[in-house]
Amino acid sequence: MVGFGIIGCADIAQKIVRTIAKTEGCSVVAVASRSIEKAEQFCASLDLPATSCTRYGSYADLLGDANVQVVYLPLPTALHLEWAPKVAAAGKHLLLEKPAGLTLQEVQEMVSACAANKVQFMDGVMWMHHVRAPKMREVVQSGELGKVTRVASSFHFCGGEEFDEDNIRVRKDCDPLGCIGDLGWYQIRAIIYLLQELPSSASAYVHKRSREGVPTSCSATLFFDSGKFATFDCGFDTNLRQELAVSGSAGTLACSDFVLCKSVDGSEFSVGSMVFQEGYGPKGHGLESTVEVRQGG
């Protein structure tokens, strides 16, 4: 049995705990918060029994728990560089919530700490491990879309007034990357994963910022030496959208829920094409196919 320890009682940690509970051979054996009271409340809300899950009132105490083999770290991004190396030094594997760090140098330091202590480093981009992801990449890389030239993505949700005032994702001392780190991280990861290329340059424009100067709405373009380019926009100010489209000379792959699947029972994406005939407008060319994917099968 693999024992997980949770450092930090963030909302996203609740989803991870429920997922661990459904995973064969894994269990949550310890939870740590800055106060024992908060750790108790978190465990009670998820029905984690005290007989099998130890509560800690400090992060450091959990790292000394011999029953913990893996630590999930959903702390604010600004604290990752402090605690991720401590997790590695304690000999625990690390599942680190995204964004992994504030700079490339920070991430490199954390990865190096894990390598030096011979423990696994993984960031918390869950959709990468869904069976749909490699199927989408297979279509993009197969030539079915023709010569791929661009990717476009939108990822937004409306946080609301309370979110805008005090959520850690709009606070400079917690997550200064704002919507770019919280949402854009998924989009950049998807673009690189599907194209199998790293961008050579990028440009971005921040449309809105929180009262502390953290980006809350942004659009950006990534440029690739192969001639491809990708655009994405993200923000905390509009209705939920999580769209991704990869376009080539012969077709387009489109997905309307690339991060959070609309259904727990399955997922899908579509592949189709359109041609433009002058004087007649766009017309469907061939058939659009919808690919249905089910996790675990």
Automatic annotation (TrEMBL):
The lineage of its organism: Eukaryota, Cryptophyceae, Cryptomonadales, Hemiselmidaceae, Hemiselmis. Residues 135-253 form the GFO/IDH/MocA-like oxidoreductase domain. It comes from the Eukaryota. Residues 3-122 form the Gfo/Idh/MocA-like oxidoreductase N-terminal domain. InterPro entries: Gfo/Idh/MocA-like_OxRdtase_N, GFO_IDH_MocA-like_dom, NAD(P)-bd_dom_sf. Belongs to the Gfo/Idh/MocA family. Coiled coil: none annotated. PANTHER family: OS10G0403700 PROTEIN, PTHR46368. One of its GO terms (molecular function) is nucleotide binding. This is Gfo/Idh/MocA-like oxidoreductase N-terminal domain-containing protein.
